[in-house]
Amino acid sequence: MPVLSPLTVQQPPLEHGDGDVLQQASAMISDESVVLLISLQESGDTLPIESILLKNSEGDLLSEIPTTDAREYRIAIGSPPHHGRLTLLAENDQGDEFDSMEIEYHCIGE
Question: End-to-end CA distance of the chain, in Å?
Answer without folding.
Answer: 19
